[in-house]
Amino acid sequence: MDKTLYILQHYYDSIKKFFTTRYDLKEYILQIGISLLIGTTAGLGAMVFHTLIEWMRFAINPSRFSRYLEIPSFVMAIVPVIGALMIIGLTRLFPQQASERGVTSVIKSVLLQKIPIPLFTTLFHLLASAVTLGTGAPLGPEGPSAKIGGGLGSYISSLFRLNIRKMTTYTVAGAGAAISAIFNAPIAGVFFGIEVILLNDLKNESLSALVIASVSADMVSKAYLGNVALLQIPKFQVNTHEVLYFILLAIVCGVVALLFMELSHIIKKFYKKIREDDTIAILLPLSLLFAVAVMFYTDIYGIGYELINKVLAKEFSVNILVILFVLKIIFIALYFQTGAYGGLFAPSLCIGILVGYLFASMLSFFGATLDPVAYALIGMGGMLAGLNSIPITAILMVFELTNDYRIILPVMLASVIAHLTVTYYNKGTIYELELLEEGIDVRKSRINVLESVTVHSIARKDFQTINAKAPLKFAMDKLIEAETGLIVVDDNGGYTGILSLNEVRQALLSSDVVELLICQDIVLHVNPCSENNSAAEALRRMDEYGIDFLPVAKGNKVTAIVLYRDIISMYNKIIVQIEEKQYGHFGL
Amino acid sequence: MSSLLEFTDTKFIKFLKSKNKYKAIEELADVFKGTDVCSDIKAFINALKEREEIMTTGIGFGIAVPHAKLESVHKIAYAIGISKKGIDFNSIDGKPVHLVVLVAAGERQHKEYLKLLSKIMAVLKNDIIRNEMIQAKSTKDIIEILRNAK
Question: ipTM of this complex > 0.85?
């Protein structure tokens, strides 16, 4: 008996010792718990999002109404127009929340540590994206899902008062979890987090949180939706000796992805030209155009899953497929560049299916006997990888969507080759290039903290103006009063340039020169910045001109100025804040 | 900036025939034609005239300093025009102008432009140099005067 007690006592002591001496055990358990909580919440968020989209699609589906209520299809084609009006209204009502959209905004939050993402912003994107996708916009749910999941992850971690590094980890976990739930693909969710949100940088120990959150989100999705596959895949045949065709299709996918990007770029430039800061307004005429196209080709309506299933079921002729392919590509690019709330994953699946199916069908004309269903699935992987720069996620997603191991090898080939084709040509992934457009160069592994500061947040409204025709001697008093310089305007108050105290110092040395000059003679034609530019961009422009202040303009009117010393002061403040957040007093 | 001579040339010195200030500006600006100073003389002349319309560059003492900074000016330079009869420049002292110094600078040559103007003004303020230039018989005389000017 004593011996038994002794043994029990020994085990008890060992267990107690294990729990009390391993200081980090509590942290591990908490990490698992928080990951589970975030995964479950992100999964629920994704399901609410999914339900809202489905409900809207069911409630106002053009084909359903025209079938049961005998309403002509052209009347119901107006649904995207109603959707556009709602989206424009929401964007106008909440411009701040609307400005940060899509997958890139989540990447930016993680990179620049702009965390936590406010809960209201997350809820706004849930609603706005549901309206966009529920009213037939040809975009996908993954961008909004990542935004919703990442937002919930960052919000929950902020409730636990975690430090910034942990919050970043859980933001990534939340985004991956939501993708896992929305596509019913947990492994793809994990790799989405790594490849897209972390841009393949796993240094911040996110893997375990990502895996736990993605699996728990997928369990929520399965419990809610059942084990229903997103796509209905008919029987198909994969012949490994067709490897050359696989490679050829992969290159075709890469080229189509590049053409799509080029088209998007042209459309973006066009939109900026006609509505510089308000591209969402273009959604209204665009939705009218889309409505007309929907009247003739109903299958281009919506995310595209139904179209994918119809293509796989061989319901279309090659001619119709070509038309659908062209319309899909054009409208996806047109919608995406307005800033409508939706992503490119599902559209890439749809384009990939069309490309692969057409590839096999067209080669069949030349005597090759290729299974169009198999090639459609391979094209799906290739296009997903090429367009979104996610080769591993693409392989896993196609595998999880098809549940067929035979497709792995050709999809691996297609994904990697299409991805390499695109990155070789573009010298970067689509997300890296999007971030680069905003002045964030992640390819050099160097993130300037000032990229996260907008000019708006540090601009000063107190500035002085002077007419360009005014004699310089009249500007002298104003120049001395102004801390840095004056804004030079024309007779209509339009911006002309600046008079910098530093620049006119030379003129001040000679009173005769002052007598000779008018402000226009020594104005510096500095390119002003906008309120939405980053402080880093403003600093670059000041360095370029060698000046210590920069005008902030809207159109040709100056609304504020930003000072060099204010930017430096903000920089110092952020550095101190980051150090406090990373190593500061917030537990865990 | 060591010497005023660095920014001019005998080719850029002209004895003016025009009596009208705008014609005089055109006549003098033409000396830059075919040189590497300015690639668009027409735009340069327009800029000088527009500037003149806003406020006269006739600063008194028989001197005018028309000037412009322009994208098409590739090299900072100045030209000197001498009018024995005098030109009505609406000068601030109401007197006719005998010496026109026309300054051309590039859009971004801000500091060099101001330095050159200061240097020109400092030299022209000197009554002796100014009168010597107005009385000069040839372009070589002008160059010699500038060479000796400190």
Answer: yes
